């Protein structure tokens, strides 16, 4: 092999090298990627709503020795090495491992979210028109509405019946199940629709789900609607009034799939942000005894601003901190604990798309297969609603990743003034802790079929574990 020239050596020391995960890993890593990808796809298939994701994460944690936090405390308090979890309103899970230092040096937090864009049923959704039964919806989160038409949809959710009984519904995912759909206008008659701007091609009030067509026999005005109600009553005991106390979500039907002839990518609904949630869970599952207490947050409502009693702006973290302080008999001020804490906001980053490069800055955009992505700031316009991590903490995380041979890159949410968005980082930062966004790149973000790299998933797991293991 020829010796490197002086300029080549200089460039090697000075120039930032953009790496590809697949170039840097060996055969054993590739085997791990395959197994991890299969487990991740199974997780996605069982976690299409925030309630389902919370239940699956809790079950996975229980099988790996994590115990309910309240039960550990009631049996005599917490000690270093205890593995715990706590569920809030069936939509949020907070789990962790007590470190050797307890709360003395703050927490090491990785926060993700388990809600995703979707179509929610309205409180009074069912109606009949032209002898078809339909369900009215209100979309949740930022979607391109036209992407949700003419495709198979499944209905997931929870209904509280007038008797008070709680019923879980899942229609469209199992073999033999019917699916639902939002219809679209045929191209032969869409001249006027075609004049609309792209984002108005399908309007919110046109996202109506086709749910039935066969009328009951007899003399009644809305026989198809009544037939749908009879099906729901026979299967679940539901009556029309029960829709008013229901959380029913229409999501893309079908399983997660490998994408590409080389099977290097995964395509599925809800990878924003369940890919980071899964990666952070796997990192915590594999973690031994940390120096500082490791905490994983799996939050709800991020897609609509982290509002509400299950969002990051709620007080659930405060409640867990109170429990930890009581269980460890700690006298340290909760404010001081949070001030001394460090966090990764584990949310996805847009990967640069060869078909849509014009909205991305090539120098500062994440690449699929380029590893975990550090995003110093999010927001829109002039960094509005961003936390903007400081140089010291960004450098510390970078050193952790380099020391542990984690392949990483930097990213942003597109060109300046092209758009923007936010994560839970700002709400963690508002608690005075150090925080930076650190997530897995995604193509077709917020669509019904998002794309991630299996190699980036592996780097996500390794990055989060390295962060927790660092002092």
Description:
This protein is of the alpha/beta class and 471 residues long. It folds into 2 domains: 17-116 and 269-469, Aminopeptidase; 118-252, Aminopeptidase i, Domain 2, CATH 2.30.250.10. It is built from 12 helices and 23 strands. It has helices at 6-14, 21-24, 27-46, 50-63, 69-74, 223-236, 271-286, 316-327, 334-339, 391-403, 425-429, 454-469, and strands at residues 67-68, 83-88, 92-97, 107-113, 118-129, 132-140, 153-160, 166-171, 181-182, 209-212, 246-252, 257-259, 265-268, 293-299, 342-345, 349-350, 372-375, 379-380, 408-410, 420-421, 434-439, 441-442, 450-453. A 9-stranded mixed sheet has the order 1-2-3-14-4-15-21-17-19, with helices on both faces. A 7-stranded antiparallel sheet has the order 8-7-11-5-6-10-9. β7 (153-160) and β8 (166-171) form a beta hairpin. The longest helix has 20 residues, at 27-46. The relative contact order is 0.17. The mean pLDDT is 96.
Number of strands: 23
Portion in strands: 15-25%
Approximate helicity band: 25-40%
Distance between the termini: 41 Å
CATH class annotation of the largest domain: Alpha Beta
CATH-assigned homologous superfamily of the largest domain? Zn peptidases
CATH 2nd-level architecture of the largest domain? 3-Layer(aba) Sandwich
Shape: globular
Q: Uncertain runs with pLDDT below 50, 5 residues or more?
A: none
If strands are numbered along the chain, what order do they take across the biggest sheet?
A: 1-2-3-14-4-15-21-17-19
CA radius of gyration: 24 Å
**Whole-number tally of structural domains:** 2
Structural class: alpha/beta
What is the makeup of the main sheet?
9 strands, mixed
**Averaged pLDDT:** 96
Question: Which fold does the CATH topology of the largest domain refer to?
Answer: Aminopeptidase
SS summary, helix count: 12
């Amino acid at each position: 092999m020829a010796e490197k020239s002086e300029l080549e050596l200089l460039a090697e020391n000075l120039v930032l090298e953009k790496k590809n995960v697949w170039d840097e890993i060996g055969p054993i890593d590739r085997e791990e990627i395959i197994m991890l990808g299969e487990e991740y796809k199974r997780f996605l298939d069982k976690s299409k709503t925030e309630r389902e994701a919370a239940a699956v994460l809790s079950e996975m944690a229980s099988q790996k020795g994590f115990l309910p936090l309240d039960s550990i405390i009631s049996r005599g308090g917490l000690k270093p090495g205890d593995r715990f979890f706590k569920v809030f309103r069936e939509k949020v899970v907070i789990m962790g491992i007590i470190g050797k230092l307890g709360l003395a040096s703050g927490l090491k937090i990785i926060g993700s979210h388990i809600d995703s864009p979707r179509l929610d049923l309205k409180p009074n959704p069912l109606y009949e028109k032209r002898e078809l039964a339909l369900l009215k919806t209100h979309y949740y989160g930022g979607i391109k509405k036209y992407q949700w038409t003419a495709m198979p949809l499944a209905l997931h959710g929870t209904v509280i019946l007038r008797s008070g009984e709680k019923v879980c519904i899942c229609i469209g995912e199992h073999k033999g199940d019917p699916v639902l759909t939002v219809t679209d206008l045929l191209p032969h008659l869409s001249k006027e629709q075609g004049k609309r701007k792209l984002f108005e091609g399908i309007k919110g009030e046109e996202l109506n789900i086709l749910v039935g067509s066969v009328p009951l026999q007899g003399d009644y005005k809305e026989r198809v609607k009544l037939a749908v109600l009879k099906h729901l009553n026979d299967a679940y005991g539901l009556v029309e009034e029960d829709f008013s106390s229901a959380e029913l979500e229409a999501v893309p039907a079908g399983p997660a799939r490998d994408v590409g002839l080389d099977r290097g990518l995964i395509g599925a609904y809800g990878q924003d942000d369940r890919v980071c949630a899964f990666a952070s869970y796997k990192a915590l599952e594999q973690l031994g005894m940390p120096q500082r207490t490791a905490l994983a947050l799996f939050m709800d409502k991020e897609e609509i601003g982290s509002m509400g009693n299950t969002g990051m702006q709620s007080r659930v973290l405060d409640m867990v901190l109170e429990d930890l302080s009581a269980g460890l008999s700690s006298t340290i001020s909760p404010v001081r604990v949070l001030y001394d804490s460090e966090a990764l906001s584990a949310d996805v980053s847009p990967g640069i798309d060869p078909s849509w490069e014009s909205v991305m800055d090539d120098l500062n955009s994440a690449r699929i297969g380029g590893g975990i992505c550090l995003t110093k700031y999010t927001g829109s316009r002039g960094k509005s609603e961003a936390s903007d991590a400081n140089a010291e903490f960004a450098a510390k995380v970078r050193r952790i990743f380099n020391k542990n041979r984690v392949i990483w890159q930097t990213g942003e949410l597109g060109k300046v003034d092209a758009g923007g968005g936010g994560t839970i980082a700002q709400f963690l930062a508002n608690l005075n802790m150090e925080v930076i966004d650190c997530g897995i790149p995604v193509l077709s973000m917020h669509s019904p079929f998002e794309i991630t790299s299996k190699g980036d998933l592996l780097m996500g797991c390794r990055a989060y574990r390295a962060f927790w293991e660092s002092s």
